[in-house]
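Quick one: structure tokens for this chain, please?
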Amino acid sequence: MFFYDSTFLCFLLPALILGFIAQAMVKSKFNQYAQVRTMRGLTGAQVARQILDTNGLQDVTVEETQGFLSDHYDPRTRTLRLSPDVARVPSVAAVGVAAHEAGHALQHATGYVPLQLRSTLVPAVQFGSWLGPLIIIGGILLETLLGVTNLGLTLAWFGVALYAVVAFFAIVTLPVELDASARAKKLLYQYNIVDQRELSGVNSVLNAAAWTYVVAALAAILELARWVFILVGMGRRNN
């Protein structure tokens, strides 16, 4: 069956393994540097507030949210949400994550184009991430089980086009996240929030987090490539 054929092992299994490794790296680095207190003793929430205020973003709200590493910036409400382990803790890991999220707020304020593009794609991604694969599978089933060749493949390719938006979104996310981390590292040192030794820890945490986005993009691309490979093969068999 096409759900678990050789293409699953070739295209998806490597991404799953890399994703597991990347997530483990993030948790490991965060937990390691969550134990290292910064010289100034500022919590993640205080650091985020300082960066925002210093850059004229007093209207951006900083609030706490539940979950582990659930930190994010919401451009719709101009709200920066930090998990308890980040908001309340004066650690190297916490200030690094908080500064990264503040970096997204700065991107929003300056009209950073990749962030604007990513925000524009969100509705289409929410639609295509679940509907695309369903349409692809439905088209394949029409072709393989019912023998509705032309309609089945056409429908499946339409599903691929929908899912391609998801892959594009994952690719666009890369420069957004990397730029936010670069801003975070620069501002933390510039504002004397961390020293050179602590900055090395921030680099370790944010670099590990960056790999999760690289792997997510790779996984989306491989998933798209898998469906294309399957549909091209089916088209050849029909000719």
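Helices lie at 6-33, 44-54, 84-87, 92-110, 113-144, 149-190, 196-238.
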